[in-house]
Amino acid sequence: MEALHTQGVLMAASLQQRTMDQERLWQVVTHMGDPKAAFLLLFPFTYFVSRRAGVAVLWVAALSEWLNLVFKWMLFGERPFWWIGESRLFEDKQLTVQQFSSTCETGPGSPSGHAMVTAACWWVVVSSLGSFLYSRTRSLVLSAAPFLFYVLMLVAVGMSRIFILAHFPHQVIAGSITGFILGVVLSRRVPEGRPLLFFFGVSMGLLLSALLLHAGLEQLGIDLSWSIALAKKWCSRAEWIRLDTAPFSSLTRDCGALLGLGLAQYWKPGGWSLPWAPRALSLAISSMGLYHVNRLPLPVRPQGVFYGLFFVKFVIVPQIVIVLVPGVVHLFTHKKKKD
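and the corresponding structure tokens:
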């Protein structure tokens, strides 16, 4: 692994040297590949175009990120920004690399969560779009365009993660392949119309199973906080260490979003039926609402309170997109038609 890590660091250094003037672009790409973006950006956009695809995106995002967390706990992947210091291989060699505000994630590095969740969720989108285009045009070339975009996007997200020293190339490749497989498998069974008890059971099952796995590994003498200690030790700036990048934050996000999806379908089975103009308005308002929900400051001490509120925050996300905003838009547009 040392040779693999060394080559990965040298690739990152070369990428930074050649494309440092594109730093802002790499930062935007890595933020678009953030698993959080699947919940806050991709889900609402997809939902107001195709209800089934939107539900599938949220479902796939939650399950793929949960699996990514489990894989990281089991695989103990290093991250370049701390491995460079820990390995001490570059003390006598000239290596110029730079960290960024999104570099210092605290979880283990393998496989890449950005690549894995992006590959899984965007497969839902591009496969649906490709099928739609083929059904309308019967053109293989036109229907293949979304899949070309899919490949280019995965390459861009992977390179952005290498550029900022968050992942090694092999971690990005592993995440992309695993995410693609999950996207294909999970998108075949979309939980539309399932009862609230189903979502409650899945949410609590994922939460408890992860906690039990964590406790079991701790009992075996495995310190699962090792990556947090290394991130704090080698991160260039202390303020770049954020609790919302910790492993338990992704766990509470996934479980909260799934419970929220169940509640939303319970409050309004089948969702609101809206024409295209009200759908566009609902998307705009939902996006603004999710932006402000995401920016809500949460107390970081005690951590149990933070994780509890983080869970509630993502329970709210599907309520805004599926129930509240479309309901209000429907109310006003319906009144306008009656008048």
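(Above: one complete record from the training split.) The mean pLDDT is 94.
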